[in-house]
From TrEMBL:
Residues 2-238 form the ABC transporter domain. It comes from Mucilaginibacter conchicola. One of its GO terms (molecular function) is ATP hydrolysis activity. SUPFAM superfamilies: P-loop containing nucleoside triphosphate hydrolases (SSF52540). Pfam families: ABC_tran. Keywords: ATP-binding, Nucleotide-binding, Transport. This is ATP-binding cassette domain-containing protein.
Length: 250
């Protein structure tokens, strides 16, 4: 479980997060949604320590991450898997080398053990045997899957994903969502996904936080979202005529 308490983040005069508190449960797909510039990525970066919050605290399973120094954070950092936008694979490394990268950095495993783990992760994301390919030889969906394989290589307790569906066709997007959702349950991870993909919201949104102008404006599940009377959330989720028509049938 991850708890954020009263997170404020300012950049100069710009107060981007205005005191956000939330709990992200273990084994759940927690989604952060909101309009462009509402502070979603900033929130994710504050949780993982890529930004220091101006105020407030982040707890990983009760441990106060915010007040730890660099060294003290290492054990928690090794339990964090991340998939950021564009998959962030190393272009000069093969698929296998990309997946083994965190293992090289953080473990003393032998080459054989690391290769076994890479094979296991590749199989788990349906890319068995693609070890020797380079990122340039992969489709966007395959790159995401390699990114997921790398993110789970260390058997993380916490998984953070920023816009997993960007640049993917709708069918591949759903496959990626389903993979994240399956892995979350299988490994009982606390997963936090930043998205503005409505298929993801409706498909895997166990717990959703809607940010509006740097504040937590609404919180609930995908089942509740269809019946909300929150005006800003409605305007955001059901912006298109198609979604409005779909809502009426729910
Ligand atoms: N490093 C930074 N320095 C200064 N301002 C920043 C920085 N990072 C983000 N911001 C500002 O914070 C605000 C929120 O940005 P953020 O990327 O968190 O939004 P977002 O909700 O993820 O948007 P999008 O959906 O467009 O990716 C924006 O006004 C942005 O300019």
């Amino acid at each position: 479980m991850i708890e954020v308490k009263d997170i404020v983040k300012t950049f100069g005069e710009n107060e981007v997060l205005k005191g956000i508190s939330a709990i992200f449960q273990t084994g759940k797909n927690n989604l952060i949604i909101g309009g462009s510039g509402s502070g979603k990525t900033t929130m994710l970066k504050c949780i993982v320590g890529l930004h220091e919050p101006t105020k407030g605290q982040v707890f990983f399973d009760g441990e106060n991450f915010t007040e730890m120094d660099f060294e003290q954070r290492v054990p928690i950092r090794t339990q964090i898997g991340m998939l950021f936008q564009n998959s962030a694979l190393f272009d000069s490394m093969t698929v296998e080398e990309n997946i083994m990268f965190p293992l090289n950095l953080f473990t003393n495993q032998s080459i054989a053990e690391k290769r076994d783990r890479a094979n296991f992760c590749l199989e788990r994301v349906n890319l068995k045997g693609r070890n020797k390919l380079f990122p340039a030889e992969l489709s966007g969906g395959m790159k995401k899957r390699v990114g997921i394989a790398r993110a789970i290589s260390m058997e993380p307790k916490y998984l953070f994903v920023d816009e997993p569906n960007s640049g993917l066709d709708p069918k591949t997007s759903i496959l990626i969502d389903e993979l994240i959702a399956e892995l979350t349950i299988e490994y009982q991870m606390t997963t936090v996904v930043v998205t503005h993909d409505m298929n993801s919201v409706m498909g895997i949104g166990d717990h959703i936080i809607f940010l509006h102008q740097g504040q937590k404006w609404w919180e609930g599940s995908n089942k509740e979202i269809a019946h909300t009377d929150n005006q800003e959330l409605n305007d955001f989720v059901f912006a298109s005529k198609f979604m409005q028509a779909a809502k009426e049938k729910l």
